[in-house]
Predict the structure.
Amino acid sequence: MLTRLFLLLFMLLLAPLSYAEKADRDKPIDIDADKAEVDDAKQISTFIGNVVVTQGTMVIRGDKMVVTQDKDGFKHGTAYGHPASYRQKREGLNEYVEGYGDRIEYDTRADTVDFYVHARVKRGNDEVRGEHVTYNSNTDIFQANDQGSTGAPQRVHAVLYPKPKPASGVDAAPVSSTEKK
């Protein structure tokens, strides 16, 4: 429990003010697969075989994907694979968030992506691993959960790199002894 709280606090402090590509939300969701079954009455679609889901810069890949739509038109997709993968460009940066897990759940209402079982999420050089990792694309915050699918406590692991230092050679101008303070 203490590890999870420390990791969450640490990630909150490190979260920069850039998020997932905002324009992606307004783009259509495009799904390619070997096979599809669409049930319009229940608003459930199942895609099987080499599934690739694309929405703007976001790409989810898996062996199978089940997509449901709620009455308000929001989508919830669950991708399965060994592993399934996720990738999305960060707003204003030439950098991506990448994640992997045996199951990935994508929720368009909450703008969250949940990675389960052997979960691993990377942002730049930073990486978080655990049995369940949540990425909120609105806030650019990761949360690692130490509860495994069996309910037994699991360990989470993070590797966080320091921010690069500014280029050297640009020092502040020295203060002249004749300048007033």
The chain has one domain: 2-159. The chain has a mean pLDDT of 78. The CA atoms of residues 36 and 47 lie 4 Å apart.
